[in-house]
Design a protein that fits this description.
Strand order of the largest sheet: 1-2-3-9-6-4
InterPro entries: Cyt_P450, Cyt_P450_B, Cyt_P450_CS, Cyt_P450_sf
Family: Belongs to the cytochrome P450 family.
Organism: Nonomuraea longispora
Shape: globular
Order of helices and strands: HEHEEHEHHHEHHHHHHHHEEEEHHEE
Distance between the termini: 43 Å
GO molecular function: heme binding; iron ion binding; monooxygenase activity; oxidoreductase activity, acting on paired donors, with incorporation or reduction of molecular oxygen
Protein name: Cytochrome P450
Length: 406
C-alpha cells in the first residue's frame, strides 16, 4: 500500500477478513498514517488514531472532550440522533470537570476491587448453574447465548436492583442505543422511549422503597455532601450501566473463549497451569481485534498529534484495539501470550474517563474462565475459527454466536 493510498479517506469501521483477526491495514496505518482520515457510518468525517502513545495521550488529555453534541462534532451513526455517543443520555451525565468526577466517585464506590471480590462466589455459582443447563441440553451449544449473555445480565441487574427476567428487553434496548447502521430512527426512538420510561419507573420505585442496590443508594444521597442524584441523571446512569454492564462483557466472554479455543495449545496451557487465568484474561482483552467502534473525542482547540496539526472542531476516533497491537508498546504484539506481564493495554481506556466497571468485567471474565476450565476441560469450537461471524451494525464488537462442544 502506497503512502497516497493510506492517506485516502477510509470507511470506518475498517472491515476484517475473519471475526477474530485484525484488519490488514492497521499495521500500515500505524507505520505510515497514524492520523488517518475516515468516513463514519453517518457520512461525517473524523481522524483515526492507531498508535499506542497517540491513543493514550488523547484519552488522557482534557483538551479532547466527550462534547460530541457540539454543532461541528461528527455524528457517529447512520441515523438522525447520531448514536450512543451523541445521545441525550450521554449529555445528561456531566462529561467533564468536577461534575463528572463527582459522578464517578458516587458510582465508583460500587465497583471497587473489594466489592467485586465479594461478588465472586455468587458469580461462580451462577456460572455453574448456567453450565449445568447448557450441558443438560447437549452439544453443540452456543456459549454466548447459554453463558456469555445471561451471566453479566444477572450480575448488573442484581447491582441495579432490576429484574433480570426483563433481559430480552434490555438486549434490544441496548442494541438500538449502540446502533451504527442496524436500526431506523423510528425503531431507535420507540425503543429509547420505552427504555427511559422503564428506568424512570424503576428509579421512582427505588426512591419510594429503597433496597440494597446502587440506584437506591444514589437516590438517597451517596456523595460526601449527602446530595441525592437528580432523577434525570439517575435514569441515565441506570441506562448506561445496564448497557455497559452486560453488552460489552457478554461479547467479551464469547470472544475470549473463542480466542483461547482457536489455538488449542492456549486452552491446554491453561488446563495445565490455571494460575495463568488472570494474565490470560488481560491478554485476551489486549488481543481482541473485534472490540467495536473505539472511543471518539471532540477537539475544542488546535493540537498536534504524531507530527500532524489537528484543527479545532475535529472529531478523533481512538482505536484502542489497533493501539493494543502496536509493536512499539508490546513485544511480539501480534502473538497471544497468556503469561504477558506487565500488560498495560488500553481496552478500558485511560485517564479520567477510563471504564468504571473494569473491576467487574475482570471479575466476571476470570470467574467464567476458571469455571469453564474446571467444568468443561474438553471444550472446543464446533466450527472452524474462520467461520465465526461478527456482530455487525453496532458500536460494540462481538461474535453472533460461539458454537462449542465438549
Amino acid at each position: 500500500m502506497r503512502q497516497d493510498d493510506v492517506a485516502q479517506t477510509l470507511n470506518y469501521p475498517i472491515p476484517s477478513d475473519a471475526a477474530l483477526d485484525p484488519p490488514a491495514g492497521w499495521a500500515r496505518l500505524r507505520e505510515q498514517c497514524p492520523v488517518a482520515r475516515v468516513r463514519l457510518p453517518s457520512g461525517d468525517r473524523a481522524s483515526l488514531l492507531t498508535r499506542y502513545d497517540d491513543v493514550k495521550q488523547v484519552l488522557s488529555d482534557p483538551r479532547f472532550t466527550r462534547q460530541l453534541d457540539a454543532d461541528d462534532a461528527a455524528r457517529i451513526a447512520a441515523n438522525e440522533s447520531g448514536g450512543v455517543f451523541n445521545s441525550s443520555m450521554a449529555s445528561t451525565i456531566p462529561q467533564s470537570g468536577e461534575g463528572h468526577q463527582r459522578w464517578r466517585r458516587m458510582v465508583g464506590r460500587w465497583f471497587t476491587a473489594r466489592r467485586m471480590a465479594a461478588l465472586k462466589p455468587g458469580i461462580e455459582a451462577m456460572a455453574d448453574r448456567l453450565i449445568d443447563d447448557m450441558v443438560a441440553q447437549g452439544h453443540p451449544a452456543d456459549l454466548k447465548a447459554s453463558l456469555g449473555f445471561p451471566l453479566p445480565v444477572w450480575v448488573i441487574c442484581d447491582l441495579l436492583g432490576v429484574p433480570d427476567s426483563d433481559r430480552d428487553k434490555f438486549a434490544y434496548w441496548s442494541d438500538t442505543l449502540l446502533n451504527l447502521t442496524r436500526y431506523t430512527q423510528a425503531e431507535i426512538d420507540a425503543a429509547q422511549a420505552e427504555f427511559v420510561a422503564y428506568m424512570g419507573e424503576h428509579v421512582a420505585a427505588r426512591r419510594a422503597r429503597p433496597g440494597d442496590d446502587l440506584l437506591s443508594e444514589l437516590s438517597k444521597g451517596a456523595d460526601a455532601a449527602g446530595e441525592p442524584m437528580p432523577d434525570g441523571a439517575l435514569v441515565a446512569t441506570g441506562m448506561g450501566l445496564l448497557v455497559a454492564g452486560h453488552e460489552t462483557t457478554a461479547n467479551m466472554i464469547g470472544k475470549m473463549v473463542a480466542m483461547l479455543l482457536a489455538d488449542r495449545r492456549r486452552w491446554e496451557r491453561l488446563l495445565a497451569d490455571p494460575s495463568l487465568v488472570r494474565s490470560a484474561v488481560e491478554e485476551a482483552l489486549r488481543f481482541d481485534a473485534n472490540p467495536g467502534f473505539g472511543m471518539p473525542r471532540y477537539l475544542g482547540e488546535e493540537v498536534e498529534i504524531a507530527g500532524a496539526v489537528i484543527p479545532r472542531g475535529t472529531t478523533v476516533v481512538c482505536s484502542m484495539a489497533a493501539a493494543n497491537r502496536d509493536e512499539n508498546a508490546f513485544e511480539h504484539a501480534g502473538e497471544m501470550r497468556l503469561d504477558r506481564v506487565p500488560n498495560p493495554h488500553l481496552t478500558f481506556g485511560s485517564g479520567p474517563h477510563s471504564c468504571l466497571g473494569q473491576a467487574l468485567a475482570r471479575t466476571e471474565l476470570q470467574t467464567v474462565l476458571e469455571v469453564l476450565l474446571r467444568r468443561l476441560p474438553s471444550l472446543e469450537l464446533a466450527v472452524p475459527a474462520k467461520d465465526l461471524r461478527r456482530v455487525e451494525g453496532l458500536a460494540v464488537g462481538g461474535l453472533r454466536e460461539v458454537p462449542v462442544r465438549w
